[in-house]
UniProtKB/TrEMBL annotation:
Transmembrane segments: none annotated. Residues 26-162 form the HTH marR-type domain. One of its GO terms (molecular function) is DNA-binding transcription factor activity. SUPFAM superfamilies: Winged helix' DNA-binding domain. Residues 1-21 are annotated as: Disordered. InterPro entries: HTH_MarR-typ, MarR/SlyA-like, WH-like_DNA-bd_sf, WH_DNA-bd_sf. The lineage of its organism: Bacteria, Bacillati, Actinomycetota, Actinomycetes, Kitasatosporales. This is MarR family transcriptional regulator. One of its GO terms (biological process) is response to stress. It comes from the Bacteria. PROSITE patterns: HTH_MARR_2.
């Protein structure tokens, strides 16, 4: 669906960017963005599962690790970046370790520190599937981000359009 088309009638309308409710404009704009990115994320979940056979949260970990030029990341840093509890992250890392997608090792200068890194297998899978996954993201955003969401972003970040922010 093109960004300027109306949503299907079986789908409820998103809240209006102008709104008449209790929320100030900034919160209304944030809710519009969350709704759009949440819908895009849902679409990506199924593509990630079909393509890589991992959960969306595990995919986010793989993406974080893929952006590291060398080595990996400490588990505490991954938890911070994803806003996840460390206990949940430990389970997700174990799920990625089983099929050989990540490795874990102790950090030399910190006995409690654990670093996680991608394996060559994971790098190969990400390279092979990145085009399909990127296309899924673009398609989902084209469907769910329309004029109201664009206006919401510009309302939250006024200098974004002219590059001053």
């Amino acid at each position: 669906m093109a960004a300027d088309q109306e949503p299907p009638s079986d789908r409820p309308e998103c809240p209006s960017a102008e709104g008449t409710g209790l929320l100030p404009g900034e919160l209304r704009a944030w809710m519009l963005l969350l709704a759009a990115t949440g819908a895009a994320e849902q679409r990506l979940r199924s593509v990630v599962k079909q393509t890589l056979d991992v959960s969306h949260d595990e995919f986010l970990i793989l993406c974080l690790l893929a952006e590291q030029p060398q080595g990996g990341l400490r588990m505490t840093r991954i938890a911070e970046l994803l806003g996840r509890p460390k206990t949940r992250l430990t389970y997700q890392i174990a799920c990625l370790q089983r099929p050989g997608l990540v490795t874990r090792r102790a950090v030399c200068d910190d006995k409690r520190g654990v670093e996680v890194a991608l394996t060559d297998k994971a790098r190969r899978l990400l390279r092979e599937s990145s085009g399909l996954l990127a296309e899924a993201v673009k398609d989902a955003l084209a469907e769910f981000v329309g004029p109201a969401q664009r206006a919401a972003v510009l309302g939250l970040l006024p200098g974004l359009a002219d590059g001053t922010r």
